[in-house]
């Protein structure tokens, strides 16, 4: 690890100001950034911790019925507090990493990093969530722009994520044996106006919606509705843990399982 | 009724109190006043010529004490290989130099190029980044077959090729072997890979070198399984130091699994640099460094053929193996695919004709050496996989086929150079069939099928050669060391005992089990006996712990030394009681005169030994301390039968282990609880190999599985509850305790059981899959089902 400055502001405004200096980086729970810095793979001049900003923490239901989660809320808090309102989301949060990761890692940090095998991006995209930053609201469909790439601009902070609560939902994670990130994960959510299916871990483009399955499930929310569909291996990740064809197969299997579990 | 002390009892492990309460003393806990820290600049390419190293900018960086390169080590030796293998033509193996820091070339990712010693670790690392290395990249040599092809680029310019040796054991006449195959009723052939593994002990390697100018004495603290071996190799072959001026300490060591047997460059470096810098020098490996510098395991590619007659009797076995040595010969690397592997190719079976051919190959990868089991898992995997395939091809029950071919008469001379002294393979299989509830399998399979899962049962037998090893035999086979061990039993005046042993405990529980033996022999409480190990200044010259040898070899030395102590104590007791020595009996810590009520306590005799006022000084010396060296007459031959039941998810290929039963014959057992633990750990490691672990290089020699993000270690939820039975006991015939060793059995016996079970499951689901190479990851199993 190289030397760096450290600030822990108490407000969003102070955090934005602190991030104005060159090569400054926001620090959520540090579950990705800190190991990268220890390996000397990342060398910010300054870390601006977001963990001291009370207005960015917590879980509540908004007047419009959406579930609001502060950007600096750790996974363990989501797991504990979101369950009454959005059990599939709480279930997802409860299986991220290990207890240490869940107690430090935050939803905003995960979405800002947009690891192609992370769990939260599939929930946000699969729920049609809104990513609220310090200066705008971004629809999930516009937010995710490929592996480790998002609509966030330099110095922009995720302060809140709003999840419309579905009628039914389920997340199926098939773990990569070493990292236990999602080798492939599928988030299925059924809303009054249709079904959303978001896939993580599988595509070279990061999290994506499986639109054919969404169409089929919107007219018939049953596992068998997906039977006739298949996912092309083109563009899927191939690595020592699985081929593109394997990941494509998992998408279908996990989608059916998610639907069965949700129904 | 289980005993509560002594041999056969299961007292809790006394060392665990300090390990579990954070009071252990590991090498990284050792800090010497004034110490500096070293960071090694390691190659990030697999194969390159070093055109130049410019350390000038780095040398002026804050805190830098001294920067070393290969040129600083031209006056000393390289790391030695401890075993010379002679090839099939009678020629010695090709043995390239292995410098402390790279000289002329780098040969694997992680090969150390330079070492920076600085006041702090961060300063050393900063300065290392300022070193400019001019490398001319050369083709990586990763695939073994390609490495042996005509015109392949050579890793070591001075060798004739990348072939280390071409070795044959068993029937050397190819025509005789071919005739046996020609006459066979059936031949089963299998090509398989025993994949490369990273040992990954929880504690990474650490070395602290210290030099005292006033007395010209060195101390090396290091994470080692055998401090005396390290001292000998480092002094005699690398640095040219007198042994009596060098102390090597291996304190608490957090797991070894073989990879801490070997003498490493970092150990010699820290010792050398301590004098050169006139400061203690400390190195603690990061996990990343461990992945690219700890000797790795396995990495065999094999074709095996099994010939049978019309009645399914095994008539011949032929194997051809390519064994990866990596870039250099690690300390015992050459012996692993040969004398620790080829000699086990008879397995538990009376196959009359066996030919084993091994070609060892240099590649631009991390060196490969012994890893829990060392050669024996590779042998067992081949034999037991091909037998399972043969059973399927012949439509016979795999247990019946094994039983039919078991060796049943002992001693048994195998066609591959070993003499099994004892065993009862049918009896052990009986224990397994009960422990695994083989009879209930069909019902369990039906239940799994109801849940949409495929269930399979895999059987495996193993034999291993442990208690390494008779020095005269291994000497003939090329070992450059003896393989005896030693113990000193020092009785204190008050009767308590310190036993200094050559074995080293790094998780095995010696501090608990060894006292059980001494306490039982004398009849005193175990708490009165303490084991001292891991410090060359305290212990006699023993060879350390590996190859499941500690109790069979060092424990035997301890028994012999204790016998000497008892014999001398009886002379003292006889003198005190004015009786004949021949009439003295020792029981429960009391010496008595047979046929009388005269007795004297152990403590009175020991006190007399050190306060010899009333003592037969004209016959014996005062004091009560004896040493014994024990050189075994033969290897020991633990054997067993394992059964694994798996479920396979046909949609995802995910394998879960539902049941695992192990029946082992370890001969006599000192502490059954510790034996259970050793078997549990070994099976866990074997399941890791079978389902999870794999060290993968890409075609450029870059390590793709270089961290725990991609190298899958087994975790608690990957393994089942085990059923372990070690009541099948045929005591070793040639050591005083009748013990065989249990440390590696689980890792040897479990991988084939798991793979056999998965194949059985897939076959039951109508999938014509006959083999999948390990690890049987979900992706590989799915691909096999859908191939």
Polypeptide structure, described:
The complex is a heterodimer of chains A (263) and B (787). By secondary structure, chain A is of the alpha+beta class. Chain A has 2 domains: 5-163, Uridine Diphospho-n-acetylenolpyruvylglucosamine Reductase, domain 3, CATH 3.30.465; 168-262, CO dehydrogenase flavoprotein, C-terminal domain (Enolase-like, domain 1), CATH 3.30.390.50. Chain A is 30% helix and 22% strand. Chain A contains 10 helices and 12 strands. Chain A has helices spanning 12-18, 33-38, 75-81, 87-94, 99-104, 107-113, 120-126, 140-143, 211-219, 244-262, and strands spanning 5-7, 24-27, 46-49, 59-61, 67-70, 130-133, 137-139, 158-163, 168-175, 182-191, 194-200, 208-209. In chain A, the strands form 3 sheets. In chain A, strands 4-5-8-6-7 form a 5-stranded antiparallel beta sheet. In chain A, strands 9-10-11-12 form a 4-stranded antiparallel beta sheet, with helices on both faces. Chain A has a 3-stranded parallel beta sheet with strand order 1-3-2, with no helix packed on it. In chain A, strand 4 and strand 5 form a beta hairpin. In chain A, helix 3 (75-81) packs antiparallel against helix 4. The longest helix of chain A is centred in the C-terminal third of the chain and has 19 residues, at 244-262. Chain B is an alpha+beta fold and 787 residues long. Chain B folds into 3 domains: 27-138 and 202-255 and 260-293, Alpha-Beta Complex (Aldehyde Oxidoreductase, domain 3), CATH 3.90.1170.50; 374-466 and 636-786, 2-Layer Sandwich (Aldehyde Oxidoreductase, domain 4); 484-630, Aldehyde Oxidoreductase, domain 4 (2-Layer Sandwich), CATH 3.30.365.10. In chain B, the strands form 7 sheets. Chain B has a 7-stranded mixed beta sheet, sandwiched between helices. In chain B, strand 27, helix 17 (672-692) and strand 28 (722-725) form a beta-alpha-beta unit. Chain B is globular and about 85 Å long. The relative contact order of chain B is 0.12. Chain A binds chain B through residues 1, 39-40, 174, 177-179, 183, 239-243, 245-246, 249-250, 253, and chain B through 122, 125, 288, 651-654, 691-692, 694, 696, 704-705, 708-713, 777-779, 782-783, 786.
